[in-house]
Amino acid sequence: MIMSVTLLSSGMPIVSVDNLTKNFGDIAAVKGISFSVQAGEIFAFLGPNGAGKTTTIKMLTTLLKPTSGEIRVNGFDPRVDQDNVRKSFGIVFQDPSTDDELTAWENLELHGILYGVPTKLRRDRMSELMEMVGLMDRMHDLVKHFSGGMKRRLEIARGLLHHPKILFLDEPTIGLDPQTRNHLWSYVTDLNKKENITVFLTTHYMEEADKVATRIAVIDHGTIVASGTSDELKTQTKTQTLEDAFLALTGSTIRDESASAIDNMRIHSRMFRKR
């Protein structure tokens, strides 16, 4: 059952990464990174396109196996204890992942059933979350009629349905207008306070990380180049804003996003063919 996940001992990091590497053939996507996240933190993992952010998240969430190094998520090793790791987190992907042909309520119901949440607990939790994200009056509407912001709020509710300890947010506000982005982060910070849920986020909007993150790690070319609070990164780089600090740490060269995406598709295709 989903509720059987063992709690971490007090004081232990809820996410621990030690000398983690990931190679795709001759390409080193992640190069021996180490960091930890404490329970209840809002932790921002920042980097340019192709820096290794998504690859790292995929390893933390059991979607990729590390080449080497150690990972613990809620005390479990994603390489050997995938079920308990998956029970420990919820995730909102960069791309929309709700079923547009189902209602909001049906999307949550399906998720709860897949995670084995008992019916009474599931229904109570669904009502609570729909109220929390402001979608109670739209719960029986088809998701295809939702705005982008409403879909994001539904995805957050879905990710929280099984009471995870960690919520992974991979660029959750991409493509949203400033007002919707602001409301979404208000929901996330309220959840963090009310439920003490740990938030692990990536974003290209530096003002978001500056506003909500407890701590920040910056990754570039597969290596963590700096970590600390927003103020510490600004002091380290002698800059006034987090965006300027980020540029000082990673450079101002434009990254070729489209080429990077194609390269990643080719890499993953080769990887799966070899399995």
Please describe what this structure looks like:
Helix 3 (104-114) crosses helix 4. This protein has one domain: Rossmann fold, CATH 3.40.50. It has helices spanning 53-60, 82-88, 104-114, 119-132, 148-160, 178-195, 206-212, 230-237, 242-250, 257-274, and strands at residues 15-24, 27-37, 42-46, 68-73, 89-92, 166-170, 198-202, 215-220, 223-228. It has a 6-stranded mixed sheet with strand order 5-6-7-3-8-9, sandwiched between helices. It contains 10 helices and 9 strands. With 275 residues, it is an alpha/beta fold. Strand 1 (15-24) and strand 2 form a beta hairpin.
A few lines on this structure:
The protein has 275 residues and is α/β, with parallel strands linked by helices. The chain is built from 10 helices and 9 strands.
Observed structural traits:
alpha/beta, disordered C terminus, 275 residues, disordered N terminus, six-stranded mixed β-sheet, Rossmann fold, 9 strands, three-stranded antiparallel β-sheet
User: Tally the helices: what do you get?
Assistant: 10
State the secondary-structure class: alpha/beta
Largest sheet descriptor: 6 strands, mixed
Helix content: 40-55%
State which percent range the strand residues make up.
15-25%
CATH class: Alpha Beta
CA-based shape:
globular
Low-pLDDT windows of residues? 1-7, 258-275
Quaternary: single chain
SS elements, strand count = 9
* CATH homologous superfamily placement: P-loop containing nucleotide triphosphate hydrolases
State mean pLDDT (0 to 100 scale). 87
- Secondary-structure element string: EEEHEHEHHHEHEHEEHHH
Number of domains: 1
Strands side by side in the biggest sheet = 5-6-7-3-8-9
Task: Using the 3D structure, state the CATH architecture.
Answer: 3-Layer(aba) Sandwich
CATH T-level topology: Rossmann fold
Radius of gyration: 19 Å
How widely separated are the two ends? 30 Å
